[in-house]
Amino acid sequence: MQPQTQTMSLPTDKFLTVAINLLNKAFLENNRTEAKRIYRDIEEGKTVSLTRLEMEDKSQVRIDLALDHREYKGKLRFTSFRTGLTLLIAQVADALREEKPLRTFQNESDPGSILFGFTAVTAENDIPSVLLLGADSRRGHPSILLRLAYFDFQQFEDQLAVGEGNMADVSVSIAQAEDEVASEVDSEADS
Questions:
Q1: Residue 2 falls within a domain, yes or no?
Q2: Where do the DSSP E strands lie in 42-126?
């Protein structure tokens, strides 16, 4: 007999709030040694469990994390990953705070897989990279997989206007995002 699974939904804004808080805690608030350990595991293709989330009905959902960096150009290092993640977290946090519409894209071949419409563009050695966040619900399992994935920047070239003329803008955006996340962490620590 197959175990029965119950389907519960969480509004996109609440799910994204949980997701960015978990990513922030794992990589930005965590001590560097522990953050690098988690990074090494996902960089090697492992799935890491981040937490168990208790739903309103008291059921629990495990939230895991994976990284797909096949389309990253060059050698991905922790510092580069963390910079892109900082920018991604800041973009999501800004959209949630400003109550902007949240775009999602569903995989036609897998309705349990979605990609959120936020792109974190960074550049290393003048080669841009695009980091996105997605989520996969695992059929038959009480878990959700957060998937950070790098995509070929050329797929987004028109939308992002990535080019030599605005790589400085990307660097400024990264610095601003790091400052915003740091000030949010400081203000949360004060409260």
A1: no
A2: 48-54, 60-68, 104-107, 110-116, 120-124
